[in-house]
Q: What sequence folds into this?
């Protein structure tokens, strides 16, 4: 594991992705080459109102430009202040932190299940898989949300050349329903293929993905979210119960866990 | 000449006066991945109890104005696992090791401290008689001067090296408890543990912690902690380790001036894990600027009106 460190960066690009979603890109982040999909940075928000850092999964990095991107939705005080930042604001990042996703084998098909705000680390994962030479036709990217406005940055997924399956609850884009429906259908229709699930999203979706993996015996991983005071495993605030008993720290033992590992 | 950051008390010398507070650094393994623990004056472990404890269900932390509430509930691996799994790691660290001990009965404290007595790596014990987040023991001991004296005396009988009593601010007179700990034979005092507090979600009417209340820490409690260090320093001759909302060198100097010999950094580690390293530089610069040669020249030197 790489040594995490605190580092001052500048917010160099902020994009309003609509529907309360924002993309923020920070420069110069010297640790871009140590970042892996599934990991997060702990962002110190320059505001007297906010005491703790806020954990944001990495949505992408540019190795050449030493840039790191996070995508977030404004849901509370911390994300509101983060959304209020201006370009050129100085922001301290602690990271990269957490256990990353495991790469699929060449022969495996990656079944990515993204729900709403769980999308950013999976965008990074799919991009890196393609960059590392994983056949994009062996990446099935399921992306679910309430309506089309929740499915942000769709063009970036399409550009990767992966098999893209948008799903919305209101049917405004892609298939209508919950994302885990088409995922299950796909898994059931591919009994002889080597599949690997990757899930991140709201609790209900994660539960369903986890349960689907256990029931249909498809290996894979899910990435969890939790409020994290420290992000480095020392405050014991973000624990989740494990199936085998005991607690795991989402920040340090996760946020990526094996399917069937966590008692959701 | 470069100022000397070494401090010593209870017959033990420390490379510098900055320690990590119990419950804010685990057993040191995670922080050691960020910087070498030799930078610390001492590492104070998470409370160790006789049996392992899972702690309370989440949410067990909550952000508050300039601070946080926690009710972790003394989650720890228990003394057996601590000795077999954590001591080997601590053996290799070039820093002082202070093991924080908690219990729900006098016997439990004595048993745990007894188990630590022949482990030379454990330089000192810090008695947690001030945890606000357990139903039995913890703060109940530290709120009663008779129990405090009895407990410290009992532990002193089984542990041959220095014993620190970590005091609770949730008492009428902290100086009375400090005097009782001194009477019992404590070698030093850690002042203060967290303040009892709570926070409520007005949408759900639920407390923000499943334990319904917790301990307040962080910058918000620094003024309270300073006043308590001062009160203890006036009434008691034991060396004091100041704790409460310290996040930079200047905060530490305030504690020294009020009577502290060393300080512990807790909640600030959650925001800046390497804050002790930054503080060392700030303390050195401060001593230089004030033309002082050691931290000892600050202790208790507040110029009162």
A:
């Amino acid at each position: 594991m790489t040594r995490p460190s605190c580092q001052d960066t500048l917010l160099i690009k902020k994009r309003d992705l609509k529907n309360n979603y924002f993309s923020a890109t920070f420069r110069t982040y010297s640790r871009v080459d140590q970042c892996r999909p599934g990991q997060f940075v702990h962002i110190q928000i320059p505001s007297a109102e906010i005491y703790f850092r806020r954990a944001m999964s990495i949505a992408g990095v540019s190795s050449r430009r030493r840039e790191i991107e996070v995508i977030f939705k404004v849901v509370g005080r911390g994300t509101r202040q983060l959304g209020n930042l201006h370009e050129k604001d100085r922001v301290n990042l602690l990271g990269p932190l957490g256990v990353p996703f495991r790469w699929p084998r060449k022969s495996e098909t990656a079944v990515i299940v993204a729900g709403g705000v769980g999308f950013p680390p999976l965008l990074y994962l799919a991009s890196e898989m393609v960059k590392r030479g994983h056949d994009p036709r062996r990446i099935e990217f399921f992306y679910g949300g309430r309506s089309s406005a929740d499915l942000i940055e769709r063009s970036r997924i399409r550009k990767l050349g992966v098999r893209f399956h948008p799903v919305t609850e209101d049917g405004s884009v892609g298939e209508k329903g919950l994302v885990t429906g088409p995922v299950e259908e796909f898994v059931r229709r591919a009994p002889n293929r080597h599949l690997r699930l990757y899930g991140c999203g709201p609790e209900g979706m994660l539960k369903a993905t986890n349960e689907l993996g256990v029931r249909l015996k498809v290996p894979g991983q899910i990435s969890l979210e939790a409020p994290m005071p420290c992000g480095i495993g020392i405050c014991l605030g973000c624990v989740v119960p494990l199936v085998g008993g005991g607690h795991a720290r989402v920040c340090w033992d996760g946020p990526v866990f094996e399917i069937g590992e966590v008692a959701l | 000449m470069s100022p000397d950051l070494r401090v010593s008390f209870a017959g033990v010398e420390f490379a510098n006066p900055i320690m990590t507070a119990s419950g804010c650094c685990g057993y040191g393994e995670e922080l050691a991945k960020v910087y070498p623990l030799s930078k610390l004056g001492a590492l104070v472990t998470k409370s160790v109890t006789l049996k392992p404890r899972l702690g309370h269900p989440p949410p067990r932390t909550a952000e508050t104005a300039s601070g946080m509430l926690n009710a972790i509930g003394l989650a720890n691996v228990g003394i057996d696992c601590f000795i077999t799994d954590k001591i080997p790691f601590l053996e290799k660290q070039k820093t002082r090791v202070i093991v924080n001990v908690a219990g729900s009965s006098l016997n439990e404290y004595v048993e745990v401290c007894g188990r630590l007595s022949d482990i030379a790596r454990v330089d000192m014990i810090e008695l947690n008689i001030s945890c606000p987040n357990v139903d039995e023991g913890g703060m109940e001991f530290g709120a009663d001067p008779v129990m405090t004296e009895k407990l410290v005396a009992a532990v002193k009988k089984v542990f041959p090296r220095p014993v620190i009593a970590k005091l609770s601010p949730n008492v009428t007179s902290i100086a009375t408890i400090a005097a009782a700990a001194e009477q019992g034979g404590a070698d030093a005092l850690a002042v203060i543990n967290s303040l009892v507090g709570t926070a409520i979600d007005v949408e759900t009417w639920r407390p923000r912690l499943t334990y319904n209340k917790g301990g307040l820490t962080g910058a918000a409690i620094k003024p309270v902690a300073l006043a308590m260090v001062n009160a203890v320093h006036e009434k008691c001759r034991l060396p004091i380790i100041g704790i409460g909302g310290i996040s930079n060198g200047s905060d530490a100097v305030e504690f020294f001036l009020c009577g502290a010999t060393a300080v512990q950094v807790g909640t600030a580690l959650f925001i800046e894990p390497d804050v002790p390293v930054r503080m060392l530089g700030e303390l050195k610069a401060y001593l230089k600027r004030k033309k002082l040669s050691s931290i000892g020249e600050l202790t208790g030197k507040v110029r009162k009106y």
User: Anything to note?
Assistant: Residues 275-289 of chain B form the longest helix (15 residues).
